[in-house]
Design brief:
With 404 residues, the chain is α/β, with parallel strands linked by helices. It is built from ten helices and 18 strands.
Length: 404
C-alpha cells in the first residue's frame, strides 16, 4: 500500500515515539531574551509575548530596548525579570539561551550580530537583512559560530498550510497545472503613519516586495515548490503619499504594485499580483488548479494573511463548488489552545516557537521540517533580487540553480 505524505509523517512520529519536552539542552526552560519589546506596543508585544505565554518549554527571561528607561518600563509591564539598555548586554547575559530580534529591518544587522558572536541561538523576524548582502553576512557569521538560527516566515508553521502542502503532495488535485495568488500588502497604500514613514524609502529593506510579497512567495513555494523562471513588473504608481492625520505629502520611492508570472520547477504555471494598501474588493485569494481538483485559500486576516486565520476549500472530480476543508487535529501539534484562535496574530508565531523548541531539544520528528534558518532567508533574499532584476531588465530570469 502506498502511503500519502501526511500518512508517512504521522507514522514516522508514531514509530519514533517522539514526545514533547519542556527543557533546553542544559536541562531547564529555554530562556528567551527579546530585542525590541516595548511598553508602547509593537510586533513583539502583539505576537511574541502571547505566543510564548501559552507555550510550554519557554521562559521570557529578558528584554532590551533603546534606552534603560524604556527597558525598565517594558520589564515592569510584561513582568520580565531582566531589562537591558542594549542588545549587546542582553546577548552577553548567561541567563539568555535564545535571542529574539523583533525590531525594524534597517536595524537587524547591528542587533543580530552581537547575539551570533556570543554563540546564542537567534530567531529574527523576516526580512533577515535590509538587503541580500546583510543577510549573507549574518548567515555566514552564524555558520562560522555553529549556532542554530530561525527566521520569522511564519506561514511555513501554519497548520492550515502544512495541511495544504500535504493535500497537494497526496494528489488531492492530481497534477498541479497552475496557481494564482491575488492580494493586497497593507503597506504601499495612499497614506502613511509616523511609525511607518521609513518604509516609503525603497532602500529601507522593508517594502511591499520584501515583506508582504516575501511572506507570500515563501508560502507558495513551501506548498508547491520553487520557481524555475520568472518575469516581473514592479511599479511605484503612488510616488507621493499623504500623512493620515496632518495631510502632509511625502515622497515614496518604494513599489506599490508587483506582478510576477513564471513556471515552477514542477512545470506548473504561477501568477502572483500583490497591490499596495488595501482593496475594497478581493483582499486575498489563492487558487491551486490541477488535473483532478482545485484548492482555494482564503484569509480572515487579510492583508496580513500569513499571520493566521486561513481557511481551505476544495473540490475534486465532478464535485460542485469548493467546500471548506477542516484542518485535522494532528496539525495543531500540542497547541490545541490555538485551534479556536487562528485569526490572532500570535497564532502562527506560537507554532513557530513550538517547532523551534523541538529543534533545540532534539524532539523534532524525523519527517518534519523545522523553522527556516538564516541560510533559507538568504535563498529567499536572493530570489527577491532576481525578481527585481527581471522587472528592471524586462526579461525572463532563470531561478533554478540560483539558490532561490
Amino acid at each position: 500500500m502506498v502511503m500519502g505524505r501526511s500518512e508517512v509523517r504521522e507514522q514516522a512520529v508514531a514509530n519514533t515515539g517522539v514526545h514533547m519536552t519542556s527543557t533546553s539542552p542544559h536541562g531547564g526552560l529555554i530562556r528567551v531574551g527579546v530585542v525590541g519589546l516595548s511598553a508602547s506596543g509593537g510586533w513583539a508585544a502583539t505576537a511574541h509575548v502571547p505566543a510564548l505565554a501559552g507555550l510550554d518549554g519557554y521562559e521570557l527571561r529578558a528584554l532590551s530596548a533603546s534606552t534603560a528607561e524604556s527597558a525598565r518600563a517594558a520589564g515592569e509591564k510584561y513582568a520580565v525579570p531582566l531589562a537591558f539598555a542594549s542588545a549587546e548586554e542582553l546577548a552577553r547575559s548567561e541567563e539568555v539561551d535564545l535571542v529574539v530580534v523583533t525590531v525594524k529591518v534597517p536595524h537587524h544587522l547591528e542587533l543580530i550580530r552581537p547575539a551570533l558572536e556570543a554563540g546564542k541561538t537567534v530567531f529574527s523576524e523576516w526580512p533577515l537583512g535590509a538587503d541580500l548582502a546583510q543577510a549573507e553576512e549574518l548567515a555566514d557569521l552564524a555558520h562560522r559560530r555553529g549556532v542554530l538560527t530561525g527566521v520569522g516566515l511564519q506561514a511555513r508553521s501554519a497548520p492550515s498550510l502544512r495541511y495544504l502542502r500535504d493535500l497537494v503532495a497526496d494528489g488531492y488535485v492530481g497534477r498541479v497545472l497552475s496557481t494564482s495568488m491575488l492580494g493586497s500588502g497593507g503597506i504601499g497604500g495612499a497614506t502613511y503613519e509616523d511609525n511607518y514613514a521609513y518604509i516609503l524609502d525603497v532602500t529601507s529593506g522593508a517594502t511591499l516586495l520584501s515583506i508582504p510579497f516575501g511572506h507570500s512567495v515563501d508560502a507558495l513555494t513551501m506548498v508547491l515548490g520553487e520557481f524555475r523562471e520568472v518575469s516581473a513588473l514592479i511599479e511605484n504608481l503612488r510616488p507621493e503619499v499623504v500623512h493620515v492625520t496632518s495631510g502632509a505629502v511625502a515622497a515614496k520611492s518604494a513599489e506599490d504594485q508587483i506582478a510576477v508570472t513564471g513556471v515552477l520547477e514542477s512545470g506548473a504555471v504561477a501568477a502572483m499580483h500583490l497591490r499596495g494598501g488595501t482593496s475594497r474588493a478581493t483582499a486575498f485569494h489563492w487558487e491551486i488548479n490541477g488535473t483532478d481538483g482545485d484548492l482555494v485559500v482564503k484569509a480572515v486576516q487579510a492583508p496580513w494573511w500569513w499571520y493566521g486565520g486561513l481557511r481551505l476549500y476544495g473540490a475534486r472530480g465532478s464535485d460542485g463548488a469548493p467546500v471548506e476543508l477542516p484542518i485535522p487535529a494532528r496539525y495543531q501539534r500540542s497547541l490545541t489552545q490555538w485551534a479556536e484562535r487562528t485569526a490572532e496574530p500570535a497564532c502562527n508565531v506560537a507554532h513557530e516557537y513550538a517547532l523551534l523548541r523541538d529543534q533545540i531539544t532534539g524532539n523534532l520528528a524525523p519527517d518534519e521540517d523545522g523553522v527556516p534558518d538564516f541560510r533559507h532567508a538568504v535563498r529567499r533574499h536572493r530570489m527577491l533580487e532576481r525578481i527585481r532584476e527581471a522587472a528592471r531588465t524586462g526579461r525572463k530570469v532563470a531561478l533554478a540553480g540560483q539558490g532561490a
